[in-house]
């Protein structure tokens, strides 16, 4: 049996097992639409790629124009309470003699950083600290970290923090290993040149302290590009950390609202990757495997991770937000972040994230609770989830079964739902979920008004790295409508 056949068999078996215990109503009805909707939830129906996956068969594609393959890539992951104590041994085993430890000023005195530094000291590993990471980094803050890394001539990196820290460390590693590159050389098009990364990077160990971005698993580094007041990033498998050290004890230090906003990022990673354009419908087909993007479209393997992450969110997120000392809930949300990261790190995200970047980049005065920063801030997870009800109402016609299944996992009763109801059902389910978690009432509640919509639309247009994975074609008028619909949620 070939390795490809074995992989397909394993995925099939896993999904068959999941379909047996995944829940569902299985009630009968007379209409064909209701029967198709029930097919998503029926306990007896196998949802593995060999037996259904209707979304992947729904859109006819010309193989010569679109891709025909996908790749799965992820960092090595180590999970367990107290695994941060092993980092010194890891670096000693690598022969590291000059390590850069990156974090932000809020975390520098907290237990996660202390645990890592104690591990390095115990193993006799020399290091230098960089504490200047900006929460929601910019091109300027990236460049400052890059300058530190170039000057230090480090042979390994350790990032201790949330997505801002890990992404900053990825960029510092990249450009210190390519000292002659201009900053925009590797930045995604159309803002940058989007050049492929061809040279080797130094080992990077990522220690996430939030349960949200999944940056410890991905080859993506996101930042605000200040000249355009919009987010962009760098995407290459070469950026993936060598090892993600996932220590659930670190999430106990997250404030309540940070836990909530981080969880919303997990939620949208799972939903967007599961509903993204299928990999075999993505155009153009790359002339060289090296040109295949990190974000490739939904695929049968990423689907497994997305579904499981969504179930974890449905089970544990409210508990993790409401009780910071609930170790079980916070630990499982930390794992959910990893699961979703593996899924979206290969499948990609689409409109929620594409629209979130100008929401975060154009913030005026909003100060988010739980974040000790001086600048106005709409946290990433919040900027993503505020448009989710409108977005999934819009995308549902392209893959209604998936939208209904997502709603069911999040607690909705879909026994009487029709395919045409999928968007409304998932949107309403999300609104109830957000209301229960005390999310601000739409874009208006974080300082935006209808007059801001044109700028938000223009800030979304350059985000084609993700927006092109939306399963439904969209125009500027569609984006305008989605932003307007997101001004108020409840």
Give a brief outline of the structure.
45% of the residues lie in helices and 8% in strands. By secondary structure, it is an alpha/beta fold. The radius of gyration is 22 Å and the shape is globular.
3D shape = globular
Number of helices: 18
Distance between the termini: 54 Å
- Arithmetic mean of pLDDT: 88
Structure explained in plain terms:
Strand 6 (220-225) and strand 7 (230-235) form a beta hairpin. Helix 2 packs across helix 14 and helix 14 (400-409) packs parallel to helix 15. 45% of the residues lie in helices and 8% in strands. The protein is α/β, with parallel strands linked by helices and 490 residues long. Strands 1-8-5-4-2-3 form a 6-stranded parallel beta sheet, with helices on both faces. It has a two-stranded antiparallel ribbon with strand order 6-7. Mean pLDDT is 88; it is low at 1-54 and 56-63. The relative contact order is 0.13. The protein starts with a helix and ends in a 5-residue tail after the last helix. It has helices at residues 3-21, 32-41, 54-58, 87-94, 111-122, 139-152, 163-177, 256-275, 300-322, 327-347, 351-361, 380-385, 388-395, 400-409, 422-436, 453-460, 464-467, 476-485, and strands at 76-79, 99-102, 127-130, 156-161, 204-208, 220-225, 230-235, 243-246. The radius of gyration is 22 Å and the shape is globular.
């Amino acid at each position: 049996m070939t390795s490809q056949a074995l992989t397909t068999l394993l995925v099939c078996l896993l999904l068959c097992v999941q379909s047996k215990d995944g829940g569902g109503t299985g009630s009968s009805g007379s209409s064909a639409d209701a029967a198709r909707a029930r097919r998503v939830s029926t306990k007896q129906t196998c949802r593995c790629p060999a037996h259904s996956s209707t979304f992947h068969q729904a859109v006819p594609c010309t193989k010569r124009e679109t891709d025909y393959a996908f790749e799965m890539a992820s960092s090595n992951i180590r999970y367990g309470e107290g695994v941060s104590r092993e980092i010194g041994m890891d670096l000693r085993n690598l022969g590291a003699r000059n390590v850069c430890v990156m974090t932000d000023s809020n975390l520098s005195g907290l237990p996660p950083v202390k645990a890592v530094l104690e591990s390095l000291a115990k193993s006799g590993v020399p290091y230098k600290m960089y504490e200047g990471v900006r929460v929601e980094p910019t091109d300027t803050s990236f460049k400052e970290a890059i300058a530190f890394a170039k000057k230090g001539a480090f042979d390994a990196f350790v990032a201790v923090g949330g997505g801002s820290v890990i992404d900053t460390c990825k960029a510092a590693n990249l450009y210190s290993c390519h000292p002659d590159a201009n900053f925009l050389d590797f930045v995604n098009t159309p803002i940058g040149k989007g050049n492929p990364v061809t040279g080797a990077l130094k080992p990077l160990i990522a220690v996430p302290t939030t349960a949200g971005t999944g940056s410890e698993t991905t080859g993506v580094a996101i930042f605000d590009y200040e000249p355009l007041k919009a987010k962009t990033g760098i995407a290459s498998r070469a950026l993936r950390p060598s090892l993600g050290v996932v220590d659930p004890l670190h999430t106990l230090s997250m404030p309540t609202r940070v836990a909530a906003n981080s969880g919303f990022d997990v939620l949208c990673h799972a939903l967007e990757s599961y509903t993204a354009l299928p990999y075999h419908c993505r155009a153009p087909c790359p002339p060289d495997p090296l040109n295949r993007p990190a974000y490739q479209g939904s695929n049968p393997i990423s689907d497994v991770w997305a579904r499981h992450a969504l179930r974890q969110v449905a089970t544990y997120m409210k508990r993790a937000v409401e009780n910071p000392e609930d170790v079980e809930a916070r630990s499982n949300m930390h794992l959910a972040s990893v699961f979703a990261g593996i899924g979206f790190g290969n499948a990609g995200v689409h409109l929620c994230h594409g629209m979130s970047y100008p929401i975060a980049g154009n913030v005026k005065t909003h100060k988010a609770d739980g974040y000790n920063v001086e600048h106005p801030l709409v946290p990433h997870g919040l900027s993503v989830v505020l448009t989710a009800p409108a977005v999934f109402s819009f995308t549902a016609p392209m893959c209604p079964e998936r939208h209904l299944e997502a709603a069911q996992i999040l607690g909705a009763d879909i026994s009487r739902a029709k395919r045409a109801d999928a968007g409304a059902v998932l949107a309403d389910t999300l609104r109830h979920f957000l209301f229960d978690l005390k999310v601000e009432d739409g874009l208006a509640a974080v300082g935006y008004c209808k007059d801001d919509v044109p700028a938000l639309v223009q800030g979304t247009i350059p985000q084609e790295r993700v927006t092109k994975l939306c399963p439904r074609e969209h125009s500027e008028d569609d984006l305008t409508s989605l932003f307007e619909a997101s001004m108020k949620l409840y």
